[in-house]
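hi! just following up on the protien thing from before. the input was this:
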Amino acid sequence: MVKYKSGDVFLIPVSSGGFAVCQIVCAFRDRFKRVFSFGVLGVTADDSKVDLLDKEFLCFKNSRGMENIIFTSVENLKKGKWRIVGNIPLNADKTKLKYFRNADALYFDDEFLEMLEHSRYKDFNVLGVAGYELVNSYLEQFFDGAE
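and the predicted 3d structure came back as:
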């Protein structure tokens, strides 16, 4: 089993070829320990040439609109299918992405903070766990028109 933590940079092979270079935001340990959240730093055709540069996460389109964070199962990470290649500590903007909502509850990482008023829902990412097929379809968006 591979150990992982916030800030770890890892590679996801994409079905059309190439790799998404991703960074872990939330590496949950308690109530949500079967999932984690990450953002995409960039894409590469060559997994041996990965720049460990702190960049803004790329945005992708999903059913809620444009997003920059994906929640998914930890299995591929823990089993080493998604290879960790380094770590970049989360900057202040990325640390803010540790705030998310699950239904009407606001969390920071594993910690419950408060119940949200409906008017504040749009201010936070939603813990919506994407299966691997959906993750791949989000990542494919970054390769459309890529060199």
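The radius of gyration is 15 Å.
Helices lie at 75-78, 92-96, 132-140.
cheers
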